[in-house]
Amino acid sequence: MSSETLYMSLVGEWSALIENGTVRVGERLPSVRKACAIHKVSPSTILATYRALEDRGLIEARPQSGFYVKGVARLPLPLMRRQSETHAGEQGEADQLELVMSAQTRTDVIDLSLASPRGSDFYPTTRLKQIVSKLVRQHPELTTDYPFPPGSERLRRQIAQRALGSGCVLSPDDIVVTNGCSEALQLALHAVCKPGDTVGLESPTYFGLIPLAKSLGLSVIEIPTHPASGLSLDALELLLSEKRLSALVVQPTVQNPLGASMPLAARQRLAALVSEYRIPLIEDTPHADLFYGAAPPDSVKSCDKEGWVLLCSSFSKTLAPGFRIGWIAPGRFLHEVMRLKIAGSLGQPRLLEEALAEYLESGGFDHHLRFIRRQFMAQMEKLRAAVASHFPAGTRATSPSGGCLLWVELPKGVDTLALFQRALAEGITVAPGALYSARGRFNNCVRLSCCYPWTPAYERALLRFAALACEAAATPAP
């Protein structure tokens, strides 16, 4: 490679690093000597590169100090990939989900759709910080010893005790601790299905389940789900009688995104159906502790006598999202889940497991849950009132049984993927309804959230999104 070609290549590399935020404003670039060692080029080539970056206004030289990144205009997120930029057949919902999740990581947007709060207003962070600090002082081995499955016995004992509240009688040996509920779901599906199998999902369903199923080589059948009573058991029974399902994933309590909760009689019937047809049921319950009532109905797992129900949950929606601690009680599939866990992530940070265990032992979790439920209930009322008052005439919204998520159906013809793009251009992000279907249904729906402090900035963003929705529907608010 000629020196001129090499120099231009380095200019392109550093321009990209600066423009995409890898090297941020105010950060110092490597010294000429260090850059020579990194790129294995001469000092003259590095100096030429830095001068070109300076000419482009990307960096500045500071006397006796070096070269630093200057402020640059933030580039907008890329639009959907064109066909030429990806393999045929790999577009669709995967690209849409990537785009939405990329927007959710940005600090310059107001997110109206997250399923768990950001910041410390809704979490006992001070107490958790105290516990972690104490454990590091008293048990430094927690930061050095490898974790092994099934995870902290102390934590598994607390999980088993709390499971009694949903009617489940579990021992610590029935439970495997995981990296969040996402890994619990992945382990469960992997344990009970093989490539080519078909899994039944609620419709709409949690958007992470669709790419997870496809990554395991599974086909998906969507099962109608009522916004109040949950999964249609009549539709499920028809599918089971036709032997079209190899497994089923259901959120019977505070379903994401609808907020539905199945009545106890429906849970009992569901447990009987999977037992009769010998079909594994993955019961996904990360939002169950956010049920608004005095207590949710007992879990489907509590009605399971033969081990066909794999119960999955986590503390990410209620206590410490950053800890990424979840768990699974896989019933008759325990051995296979353990095998997959050993072959995969192996374990979670022991320090965080023990910190959660100590917090749960302290007895403060139930008090915290009462606090967060009250907050969500109050803010959900405000969110539903705002939708009723400011969204287009004809808009419908769920009445969730718990949690912080609101499913909103805009008038027919509104394309919420296009609406998402318009809102993002104004610093607002939502979750378009098409993400919640393997078939691209619900394109006129969005998921909103009230898990944020109700600040003037949040309210302005919500009302601006409502105005954009009215424009898209060509319909004013009622």
TrEMBL record:
Ranges that cross the membrane: none
GO molecular function annotation: DNA binding; DNA-binding transcription factor activity; pyridoxal phosphate binding; transaminase activity
Domain HTH gntR-type span(s) in chain numbering: 4-72
InterPro entries hit by this protein: Aminotransferase_I/II_large, HTH_trans_reg/aminotransferase, PyrdxlP-dep_Trfase, PyrdxlP-dep_Trfase_major, PyrdxlP-dep_Trfase_small, Tscrpt_reg_HTH_GntR, WH-like_DNA-bd_sf, WH_DNA-bd_sf
Record Pfam families: Aminotran_1_2 (PF00155), GntR (PF00392)
Keyword Protease annotated: no
SMART domains recorded: HTH_GNTR
UniProt KW keywords: Aminotransferase, DNA-binding, Pyridoxal phosphate, Transcription, Transcription regulation, Transferase
Family: In the C-terminal section; belongs to the class-I pyridoxal-phosphate-dependent aminotransferase family.
Annotated protein name in UniProt: Putative 8-amino-7-oxononanoate synthase
Taxonomic source organism: Craterilacuibacter sinensis
